[in-house]
Design goal:
five-stranded mixed β-sheet; alpha/beta; 21% strand; globular
Length: 260
């Protein structure tokens, strides 16, 4: 079995000490509807196999530990400033499982050798990096997160907790549900009116990629520092998991870490 090789963002590839990537579903041990590198423990897949996939992902990045979140489509952000903050919450690929897990949909840290993981299957993972302050973040931005502007909230956290400057932050938006497939029949009840400008004129399809770019820009992130992979998960189920397409499916991972 080939070693999983993540997709990377060009605007983040030239920073020494930064490791990042978005994994496709290729290269894992899961079978059936979870076929491939499923890292989601809440999907119905065999937990032992999911953990083997997680270890395989960890090894491919040569990382000693990563932080998984209990993602609930909320707005809470895990702030990891010290080893004490991370204690008991990291996955090391061996020994006992983490004794705690943060109920959050984004994480920010300046710790070295700690990967931040977001698990998705149509939602966006938005990875953020401030090369001046050496601070990273990873955001789970589904439609609920977009409505609540979790991206903006995470940028605010980077500024207030770590002294980051938005104009220096680089951002990468993972494969996710594209404007071709982001249909919301009940959008009048689900999506705030302020975001209706991103709807197609005659169809209830929304461009959440542009929503995220604009939310980043509203916080001061420069447009030239934002990269969107532009791959729709529902259109590419051979490469990525998609809940919209398959319902019972796995989760692929986006990871970012600072290495020593």
């Amino acid at each position: 079995m080939a070693v999983p090789r993540p997709l990377t963002f060009e605007n983040l590839n030239n920073f020494p000490g930064l490791v990042h990537g978005v994994f496709s579903r290729a290269g894992g041990y899961s079978k059936g509807p979870f076929l491939g590198l499923n890292v989601g423990l809440s999907t119905g897949d065999d937990p032992d196999i999911v953990n083997r996939n997680r270890i395989r992902m960890l090894s491919s990045l040569d990382l000693p530990r990563v932080l998984f979140l209990n993602q609930v489509h909320g707005t809470d952000i895990a702030v990891i400033k010290s080893e004490k903050d991370a204690a008991g919450a990291v996955f090391k690929g061996q020994g006992t499982a983490p004794s705690k897990i943060f109920k959050a949909d984004a994480a920010v840290t300046n710790l070295k050798n700690l990967g931040l993981v977001i698990q998705v299957a149509d939602c966006q993972a938005v990875i953020l990096y401030d090369p001046e302050k050496e601070v990273i973040a990873n955001v789970h931005a589904g439609w609920r997160g977009s409505v609540a502007d979790i991206i903006g909230r995470c940028i605010d956290t980077m500024v207030t907790q770590f002294g980051c400057t938005p104009a220096t932050i680089r951002a990468g938006i993972s494969p996710s549900l594209g404007p071709c497939c982001a249909q919301f029949i009940n959008y009048e009840h689900e999506i705030s009116r302020a975001l209706w400008q991103y709807k197609e004129k005659d169809r209830p399809y929304f461009d959440f990629w542009q929503i995220s770019r604009d939310q980043l820009g509203a916080q001061g992130v420069l447009d030239e520092h934002i990269e969107t992979m532009g791959l729709c998960t529902r259109c590419h189920t051979d490469l990525f998991y998609s809940f919209r397409a398959n319902k019972v499916t796995g989760r692929f991972a986006a990871v970012i870490a600072l290495k020593t």
